[in-house]
Amino acid sequence: MDMAQPIDPDRLPEATARLEQDVAPGAHPRPGGRQPREKQRGPVTLRRDQAVEGSTTDQRLLDSRGPSDWVHTDPWRVLRIQSEFVEGFGLLAELPAAVSVFGSARTHPEDPEYAVGERIGAALARAGYAVITGGGPGIMEAVNKGCGEAGGVSVGLGIELPFEQHLNDYVDIGLNFRYFFARKTMFVKYAQGFVVLPGGFGTMDELFEALTLVQTGKVTSFPVILFGSAYWSGLIDWLRTTMLGEHKINEVDLDLMHVTDDVEDVVDTIRRHERLRQARG
Description:
alpha/beta, 43% helix, two-stranded antiparallel sheet, single chain, Rossmann fold
């Protein structure tokens, strides 16, 4: 096949029409000598009925008169998701060794569990750890408060919810997320372990996410500590009698959780796992 003649930029409309008609070098003509209609959209090739005529990406970028609903489309969401990872990584990269602590947002300050949260936050701070919570009220607030008052770095990672919720006043470093999965990554990536106090569905979600990551080897030497044996005993019994009893997990999987009622045991367990991790390199 003869090479196409050079295109004169001053005759762009005619050149564009010719490009659409030309057969690409090396292409195999279809029976009858006709190529399927084809259109390029960035790296994407569209053919036949998918090759709908329209403006180019640059045209749409430079056209300020277009509709604004594009900010709600999936490609734009990908950029928002990317920005959340960039912001999270940038903000937390220089954080000292930290522990993520979870628990109910519905715990009131007069509840004994609130005082436990304060004690855990303070003990972790005195041991040299920052704390990372969901930044909300209840147990999260208690842990942030205890850590801050003990001189530690108190981090809160909030989430956009249908109802109004702000980062609590005891957060030193705060970041709000639109997407749960981006937020979850930060809880795991920048923590030496999880401490899980009594809580609801959100707490359970974080707990079993962590257990799955440890069970599958995605994270190693990562302690998952359940604080409050009275609260967690029913769940542990169900896991042992039902889930293990029906061979849905292995006996060793139950050892992924450490149940305690002792604040100092929380710190000792995290330190022990940290030493193991350092020994393994």
